[in-house]
Amino acid sequence: MIMRMSQLFVRTLRDDPADAEVPSHKLLVRAGYIRRVAPGVYSWLPLGLKVLRRIEDIIREEMDAIGGQEVLFPALLPKEPYEATNRWTEYGDNLFRIKDRKGGDYLLGPTHEEMFTLLVKDLYSSYKDLPLTLYQIQTKYRDEARPRAGVLRGREFVMKDSYSFDIDDAGLDASYARHREAYIRIFDRLGFEYVIVRATSGAMGGSRSEEFLARAEVGEDTYVRCTHCDYAANVEAVAVRPPAPLAYDDVPAAHAEETPATPTIATLVDHLNERFPREDRPWSAGDTLKNVLVVLKHPDGTREPLAIGLPGDREVDQKRLEGQLEPIEVEAMDEDELRKHPALVKGYIGPSVLGEESASGIRYLVDPRVVEGTRWVTGANVEGQHVIDLVAGRDFTPDGTIEAADVRDGDECPSCAEGTLEAARGIEMGHIFQLGRKYAEALDLKVLDENGKLVTVTMGSYGIGPSRAVAAIAENTLDESGLIWPREVSPADVHVVAAGKDPALFAAAEQLSADLAAQGLDVLYDDRAGKVSPGVKFKDAELIGVPTIVTVGRGLADGNIEVKDRATGERTEVPVGSAVDHIVGLVRG
Ligand code: ATP
Ligand code: MG
Q1: For the residues 246-255, what does the mean pLDDT come to?
Q2: Rg (CA), the chain
Q3: What is the CATH number of domain 494-588?
Q4: Has domain 2-238+423-475 been given CATH number 3.30.930.10?
Q5: Which of 205, 305, 440, 538 is deepest in the core (most CB within 10 A)?
Q6: Residue ID of nearest Cα to ligand 1 atom 23
Q7: Is the CB of 159 under 6 A from ligand 1?
Q8: Fold observed for domain 255-401
Q9: Which ligand 1 atom is nearest residue 428's CA?
Q10: pLDDT, tens only, 288-300
Q11: What pTM, to 2 d.p., does this model score?
């Protein structure tokens, strides 16, 4: 097939769009792949749609290869199934809700667990029908709080979602493993760098769960890898290995001390070292227990205070905290809200007024490092005072633990305890999880087993975002001159540029394009004549990012064309006579 630049519906832009910060977003707009319609809502132009479709085709092939069967659900869905699983409420503001003319409640589907569960329930009733994998490639809607970076985080986006149905846990494990293999093949073919990390299963519930992340500085996810073993996890899913409890027989009784003008951990540590020096070593921030107050916003609108205790050298990581509490959202507790709890003395809050049984009644959860016998300096609940030698398990007992502290480079690996963790950023491209029986139970999906007994089906849920993938791949491969597509997803196999004015040169470029197309290649042919200079054509070719750029220009006089590798910049002179074979060889590898 030949696409001619003179005809193609594209206008490349010299300037970055005003609303774009992320490089892939700028380039996808400038190169004429996408256009914005509303925040987080984009149209696909011919070049963009080609890339999107190629990604979808790869996914489709690999899903079919593991026995998945493609179906297609509507995006417009009735409320009832989502009420049965409570997601009508849990999705909160993220759900697009609509009323029909009769006042009936509908939604635009954010993901389709309910619908697939009900479809299988409708038609299947025996263990003999299982295992089953169904999937769709379909438009999803989420009213994201922060739509971002073009199609990277849209409010309308494309998702491949598949669902496995099995009679027992072993079946689910096998379905999960098959999906994992298919995902590895898909992401290998998509041709960019990715990592597989442990994940939390979030609003979906369920147990085993992994994410496929594209490595990217602009990514919103942070993941860690161990320097020693193969542990890799989204920071949301890192579970700190709690230290062993310590003996505290020798620890003196807790004592409150005057610590004037110590509003920060740093000033407190300085004051301790000056007035209450330790014999063994200086005090450090990690000796203090910091108590952070937040408000939990439940999906039904109710608000609940929560206190989090963590070592003073750590911060609360909001994403990690929300990852544990999903679908609850978390806000900092402001002054007004704090005043509603007279037991709390701002800046000097300590465990003695925290906990469900305490004067404040506020639930108190601590970092897993705060184990029995650990010894802390913390607020005394008196203006200007801190308590020293406050021992966990002796002087206070929290209501439980929570993984809310930030995870850092150099932290101990929770898996092998020999290596340390290294953090990097990524974009979530795919997510596979074992849902278990949550949806089947809520919607009563049961089948008869071999003994004629009704058993609840166990499910897995597996997502990939093809539209996000367009942006993530672009982000992973681009350079300062433009996009650079991996071969399997490029909008064309080769970009032929007729560079000059001589009609003979256009004739040769036309012939080459036709010969390449006859070999089954997709050719983008820059046949623009007249005012469009070779310089403009080269700039456009770099911007559009087809991996092989062929110039039919000055060299033609000597019987040569030039083949340029967009990624490496490497140029090769090739005789016209062998050009087709050479280029087909490059494309087919
Ligand atoms: P995120 O944490 O980035 O919001 P998610 O955990 O909500 O993603 P899933 O519900 O697991 O995402 O959806 C499956 C896949 O759909 C994701 O891995 C991602 O590729 C894609 N996806 C999710 N939300 C969006 C979005 N707003 N825009 C584009 N793609 C998305
Ligand atoms: Mg996810």
Answers
A1: 92
A2: 30
A3: 3.40.50.800
A4: yes
A5: 440
A6: 465
A7: yes
A8: YbaK protein (3.90.960)
A9: 18
A10: 999 999 999 998 8
A11: 0.90
